[in-house]
Amino acid sequence: MRIGWRLVIAGAAGAAAWLAGAGPAAGLAIAVLAPIVLASAPRFLAAAVAAMRTPTAREDPTNAMSGTEFEDYVARIARSTGNPVTMTSLTGDWGVDIIVGRRPHRLAIQCKRQSRPVGAAAVQQVVAGAPMQDCTRTMVVTNHDFTPAARKLAQLHGCELVGGADLPRLRATIRRLTAPDVPDG
């Protein structure tokens, strides 16, 4: 029955084109294209509405999240890179919330959803906890920003910091940090 309504639309579109003064070739082209356009319109409109609801780089989707929801958000982004993702338990995680990648390029991530800049303690926790989780790289992700002390400590230990303004680039940063090392030469 799906073909039936398409044939009716095609016939009506072709007849309307002919009555409007279009030639036989134009009427046939309209008759063929009309069902295709009408069949794809619902998908196009659904995608357009979904795109309008997708937050842009200026909008912060993390505003209404709890700390646990923020961890889930970061884990979803990490999973979208194609890497295995492990979320650690709430207690006894040694300061590592999420583990991304395969050995020997595992990334330890500490997530901090806060209303103020994240301090050096978060960097200390993930840097100390990474070896306990068999991770070679570290990252702290926050919805806010970092204190100067946290930036200095992260630079000293090679810890990647991703603040609120950098969240749109989180996926690319995770891909870079979990990629196998390419030997020079």
TrEMBL record:
Residue ranges of domain Restriction endonuclease type IV Mrr in the record: 63-169
An individual GO BP term: DNA restriction-modification system
InterPro entries: Restrct_endonuc-II-like, Restrct_endonuc_IV_Mrr, tRNA_endonuc-like_dom_sf, Type_IV_Methyl-Rstrct_Enzyme
Pfam families: Mrr_cat (PF04471)
Top-level taxon: Bacteria
GO molecular function: DNA binding; restriction endodeoxyribonuclease activity
Keyword Nuclease on entry: yes
Keywords noted in UniProt: Endonuclease, Hydrolase, Nuclease
Family annotation (Gene3D superfamilies): 3.40.1350.10
Name of the molecule in the record: Restriction endonuclease family protein
